[in-house]
Write a structure and sequence with these properties.
Mean pLDDT of chain A: 86
Largest sheet of chain B: 2 strands, antiparallel
Shape of chain A: globular
Radius of gyration of chain A: 19 Å
CATH architecture of chain A: Orthogonal Bundle
Low-confidence stretches of chain A: 304-316
Strand order of the largest sheet of chain A: 1-2
Largest interface: A-B, 41 and 43 residues
Distance between the termini of chain A: 8 Å
Helix content of chain A: over 70%
Strand content of chain A: under 5%
CATH class of chain A: Mainly Alpha
CATH topology of chain A: ABC transporter involved in vitamin B12 uptake, BtuC
Mean pLDDT of chain B: 85
Order of helices and strands of chain B: HHHHEEHHHHHH
Helix content of chain B: over 70%
Strand content of chain B: under 5%
Oligomer: heterodimer
Distance between the termini of chain B: 47 Å
Number of domains of chain A: 1
Low-confidence stretches of chain B: none
Largest sheet of chain A: 2 strands, antiparallel
Order of helices and strands of chain A: HHHHHEEHHHHHHHH
Radius of gyration of chain B: 19 Å
Chain lengths: 316, 292
């Protein structure tokens, strides 16, 4: 990672940290900012799969929802330590992701997309109808998590900084990953899977690895969600939510990491602001997606990928 | 014996009826997939549009039978316009783009319908009232009609694909579009007309099922996954496969509900699907190696 990248990231982090100091930042805007960064982080972790490896997952909502449920179940049972909640989410999402990726990575392209979709739908159906987890109402009104005994994350401001720290760490993880040898193999798989295999790489293992990383990041993001909303519902894992994640990535730009973060922020803010003026918002977002696929298949920031690839080859 | 007549038989008939309608939906989906390589996420919305177009036409003409002719034509036109405007530019791109594009189309269609008609549930009254005694039980006339007309349609489509020149051209395009192009057939036109036809079939399915189910903007979302499952089980791109699989899934679903609660049935069917995708992704009748 170059110094310039790090410097840019530090500036961005500082700017985001200063956001709550803006004069008009009410509780409402802080919650909106929380959502924007959270879904930005999810879109970024999905970009590892779609943008870098060329695997379109239509089941990321399940990782998100499972993470949210893991936290909500802990909090509901008065286990309020944030770290225990996160650990629970990592274990649950990790096990599920291992299972899904084991089967899904055996197939390519459209079959991968459908397998992830169907697995996610199983999880959705399970939570939707299991009364232990509240059925279709989900788990409502959970207490705030505690960073340490007595330090509750009970204000929008604290939650905002929590998600900001998470976004920064997630970006570091993704960035390190794609800059590493591992990341280059992923791009090789995207460009030509058979050739990567003939070069001696265990392609399936690489694909499972990146699925696991992407799923865990999404799962941890999900685990932070009940802290802001106080609930986890099965609707979080509806397959259309997975579709929205893909839209965020496509808006932002495939294979850019930062692009999907912006895409996620853009999507959340637009949805919130535009939908309060015009309620035909989803017509707009649907058509935007169509136009992007038609005219800018790499996304709004996607042109940077080509540039990034050239830099890669020259060894930077 | 009582159990057989009172429980098993009606459930089996329900399954057949549902399977036949599902077949109409899945047939279009599989042909589109075979031709364009696109898994059409908007197919559920075409199905939904069929039901709403039906409501409009019934509202104007007070006749279900007129609606059954006019609504599919309307949706067919929408399908043709959509294909030319959005899918045609994607012919040579990766199939995954088609998946994402049609997801966007589905969003737009769904929201447009919600804006025009509102989000609440609507009903179409069955055009044929009453029920008939049948094999020791009584069965609603409309469902028998549904089974009959769906079967006739499926048979007609089968004849179309095997006996007519147009049908053979479509099958040739599924097999090898480039070769067909080389032989002087206007392949993009074949694609557009086929897409329109598939859209019209989805609309027929939507309208036929409307008197049994309710009509609401999300109805396509509920159906499309089942249609995907049928297409995968039958083998992507296989016409016979999708019809056979539609009956299998329809009957399996309605028989399983006798012994399990609905969510277990859903999970069981998803489970079957995962096994098929992993072990035999080409399904029952699919060609080996299609996009595997």
């Amino acid at each position: 990672m170059s110094n310039r990248t790090l410097a840019g990231a530090a500036v961005a982090l500082a700017a985001l940290a200063a956001v709550p100091a803006l004069p008009f930042m009410s509780k409402y805007y802080l919650l909106l900012a929380f959502d924007a960064l959270l879904f930005g982080a999810i879109a970024m972790s999905l970009d590892l799969l779609i943008g870098y490896t060329g695997l379109v997952s239509f089941g990321h909502a399940a990782f998100f929802g499972l993470g949210a449920y893991a936290t909500a179940v802990c909090l509901e049972r008065k286990i309020v330590s944030l770290w225990i909640c996160l650990a629970a989410a990592v274990v649950v999402v990790g096990l599920y992701a291992l299972l899904v990726s084991y089967f899904a990575t055996a197939r390519r392209g459209i079959y991968f997309a459908l397998l992830t979709l169907i697995f996610a739908e199983v999880v959705y159906t399970f939570f939707r109808y299991t009364q232990t987890f509240g059925g279709s109402d989900g788990i409502q009104g959970v207490p705030a998590a505690e960073l340490a005994p007595g330090v509750a994350l009970d204000t929008p401001l604290k939650n905002y900084y929590l998600v900001l720290v998470f976004l920064a760490l997630a970006w570091l993880t993704c960035r390190t990953l794609v800059g590493s040898h591992f990341g280059r193999v992923l791009v090789a798989i995207r460009e030509n899977e058979d050739r990567a295999r003939f070069l001696g790489y265990n392609v399936t293992r690489y694909k499972m690895g990146v699925c696991l990383v992407s799923a865990l990041l999404t799962g941890v993001a999900g685990a932070l969600y009940p802290g802001r909303s106080g609930f986890a519902t099965p609707d979080l894992m509806l397959w259309t939510v997975s579709g929205e994640f893909i839209i965020m990535v496509m808006i932002g730009g495939l294979g850019t990491l930062v692009g999907p973060v912006i895409g996620g922020v853009f999507f959340v803010v637009l949805q919130e602001k535009v939908s309060s003026y015009v309620d035909w918002y989803f017509i707009v977002i649907g058509l935007v997606l169509v136009l992007i696929v038609l005219f800018m298949p790499k996304g709004l920031l996607g042109f940077r990928r080509v540039q990034g690839f050239a830099q890669w080859r020259s060894g930077q | 014996m009582d159990y057989l007549v009172a429980v098993l038989l009606p459930q089996l008939l329900h399954g057949l009826v549902f399977g036949a309608a599902l077949g109409l939906l899945a047939l279009g989906l599989t042909v589109i997939f075979g031709l364009l390589g696109v898994m059409n996420f908007a197919h559920g919305e075409l199905y939904m549009l069929g039901a709403y177009a039906g409501i409009v036409v019934v509202g104007v003409t007070h006749s279900f039978w007129v609606a059954l002719i006019v609504a599919p034509l309307l949706v067919g036109v929408i399908g043709a316009v959509t294909e030319v405007a959005t899918l045609r530019p994607l012919y040579r791109r990766e199939p995954l783009y088609g998946l994402i594009l049609t997801f966007g189309l589905a969003l737009a269609f769904r929201e447009a319908v919600r804006q025009i008609f509102g989000g609440d549930m609507r009903r179409i009254l069955p055009p044929i009232p009453g029920s008939t005694p049948l094999l020791g039980m009584t069965y609603p006339n409309y469902r028998l009609f549904l089974l009959a007309i769906s079967s006739v349609l499926l048979l007609a489509i089968w004849l179309f694909f095997t006996k007519t020149r147009a049908g053979i051209v479509v099958r040739a395009a599924v097999q090898d579009a480039e070769m067909l192009d080389g032989l002087g057939v206007d392949v993009p036109r074949v694609f557009t007309l086929t897409f329109a036809g598939a859209a019209a079939l989805a609309a027929v399915a939507g309208l036929l099922l409307a008197p049994i189910f309710t009509v609401y903007p999300q109805m396509g979302v509920e159906m499309i996954l089942l249609a995907f499952i049928v297409v995968i089980l039958g083998g992507m791109g296989s016409i016979t496969g999708s019809v056979v699989a539609a009956f299998i899934i329809g009957i399996a679903q309605s028989l399983l509900t006798l012994w399990m609660n609905p969510q277990r049935v859903a999970i069981a069917i998803f489970g079957i699907m995962i096994v098929v995708l992993v072990v035999r992704p080409r399904g029952l009748f699919g060609r080996e190696g299609v996009l595997e």
